Amino acid sequence: MDKSWMTEHRTSKKYMDGVKSFVEFAAVNTKTPGFMLCPCKRCCFRKTLRQQVVHDHLTSGAGILQGYTDWYMHGENISTPIHREPSHVGYSVSPVDEMSAHEGSTTGMHAMLHDVFTMHDSRVDVDPTEVEEDLEGPDENARKFYEMLKGADKPLHDNTKHSKLGAIVRLYSLKCMGGLSNALFTFFLEFINELIPTKSPLPKDTYEAKKYMKDLGLEYQKIPCCRNGCMLFWKESENLENCTTCKMSKWKEDNGMIDGTSRKPKKKPAKVLRWFPLIPRLQRLFMSHLTASHMQWHANERTKDGVLRHPADGEAWKTFDARYPDFALEPRNVRLGLASDGFNPYGNMSTSHSIWPVMLVTYNFPPWMCMKQPYFMLSLIIPGPRAPGMKIDVYLQPLVHELMELWDVSVTTYDVSSKKKFTMRATLMWTINDLPAYADLSGWSTKGPHACPCCMDSTQSIWLTYGRKYCYMGHRRWLHKDHRWRKMKKSFDGTKEAGTKPVTPNGDELMRQLEGVESLFGHSMGKRPRTHSSINKEKSIWKKQSIFFRLPYWRHNLLRHNLDVMHIEKNVVDNILGTLLDMKGKTKDNDEARMDLQKMNLRPNLHQVTTEQNKTYFPSACFTMSKEQKYNFLKVIQDVRVPDGYASNVSRCVKLKEHTMGGMKSHDSHILMQQLLPVALRGSLPKNVVEPLIQLSGYFREICSKTMRLEDLDRLESQIPIILCQLEQIFPPGFFTSMVHVVVHLATECKLGEPVHFRWMYPAERCLHQYKCSVRNKAAPEGSIAEGMHLQILRVSHDGSEKDLQNKHVQEFCDWYLGYVSVML
What we know:
Among the domains are: 4-74, no CATH class; 106-116 and 123-215 and 804-823, no CATH class; 565-578 and 626-758, no CATH class. The protein has a seven-stranded mixed sheet, sandwiched between helices. Strands 1-2 form a two-stranded antiparallel ribbon. The chain contains 30 helices and 19 strands. Strand 15 and strand 16 (616-617) form a beta hairpin. It is globular. The two termini are 34 Å apart. With 825 residues, the protein is of the alpha+beta class.
């Protein structure tokens, strides 16, 4: 059939006629009359829909997948030529997977094998033994492929059309969806083997099933590590028995015997790092028909009309391309982001345990794909029970080693969309994490007098004697040099401002600062490395030299670590609500704050007053709400009704009797800040208090938009210092924590990295929730997460239904699995 219509615009007559012919062709070959798999860009074969709905998706929706030129999921014989290694002389290139006489799961399994082992032939009519004879010494990957190919061809017995591979994949998926334990799944397999009349080729227990599934690439590596986080027993240190720093044993202390005999149990590492190799999963993105065509979207399909929609529109991406033109010349080279955070796998239990997964984001994908959960790649599971802290670099060694290989050496990869091999390289653009994790990854402490990682040693801070903390109020530096607020002393911190806004040092300046700072490798827990500055009796601002500086390009990245808008916004909202509602323990206008104002000789109208009866009290501030105002403010929030799925029930957080709010999640604060706060504040407080808070709300709303323009960011960049200076004249110094101060840098970072939703923690937090739900064995939470992600490729996505999947034919399940075997890994 003529398929040139697939590249035409969706409104053209040729495209509309082509969609009609495609739907008619697929309707004849479908096994479920009236229904078919949807090949649009949004569904990606994940949904089985009515024919008319599929027609609408292709015409008025996202359009058909551009890489889907062989309609093998809709009954067409695949005619894609197989790519061969040059050394395979004498091998005749022929069509892949002739989908003709075989029924049931065979065709789907062959299509799946083609995506997993793209470099080999998965034809139904090929004889694996003959092909092996033609190959000059097939490697281990080829042998696995031929074994799987035999399993896809051979039926379980004479009275079934299901193959061994199809049956194992289906049973394994049911284990995952039903949450069956290993012991129960073993009983399940034993019973099925008894039902099969002939000698069963199915696995006898869970161990054999897992071993079989690992041949599809569903595996990870276990690396023993020091229980104190000093080192990994990896590479040249693999055979060591004790840590070279703290001298602790590599093994668990277990001297017991087995069954009263003299035989000792097998040694087990005291701590294990689980590593999911990155390179094969990046290769698989180009080996799948569903993702290969999207890996060049940022270069070939991105609209370049001045609207900022994607990180490729940002200054950091463009500057990187200008510095490394050889990397930018190949659009298939991969751009990655790293996200990490810790969580307690036991929920709200009193047990203290912190696990740190490290995830990777692929920015080659279009905006509607790259931040979705199926396209997040789990790279490392850093074990608990304690957070790694500054020693996270020890655990990042395998990942950084792969990133260096992907930059310096590169990897040969087959691209199924162009049917050619290319040399793939990859770069790490930046990291995504909250402010405490920012310090662990960057090495710059986000506490103390220099807490701002953007201002660095130019951070202006004041130590509050009674509040016993630092505050950060120097926002007049960002104003115009002739602005009248620069000379006003009493309204701010008691000083005139003559300085200019700080300039973030470039890569060369950073490396000069880090010359005397060592890495944390080889230092025992609780001890800090000595630096040249400490030798000179000067306090070092840098706590370590980050492992990411081993990457040759890292020093030249304009944006190395992102400020997380999710946590910043939540902290700002907590400060505002706690202060306005005078919530105990959360307000920034307490007795200590008033005493600090008195010591600084600022705002005399708020100082302590002594009455004639020798009683003391603090006068009310302009932002202090009466009980009636608090009630009206909270009543507005409580009565708000939002569309289903837009936000949680914020009214549950309101406590009218106590005049407080509590229990809000990050997204509740997001909705409250950008939508509800401007409405609820009107009429509750004086105009000079309400206006800057409403402007701050609009500032967050604009920087969180999915599209923006450069002129809008310039306006926001000049507007936010004025808003913060207005707040400095209203709230006490204790209000301005480091989280409030870094708001001044958010618009600038948007210029570098573009829309916020590519660089905040919301998608990563959703992945962390998924990892927490996969913990079934409380005694080994890290292993449960690893096995859960091992099974995740067989789970139904949020777009599907588990019940529907169980009732579908094996053929449809294989089609679904074909899409996710390359994405979920």
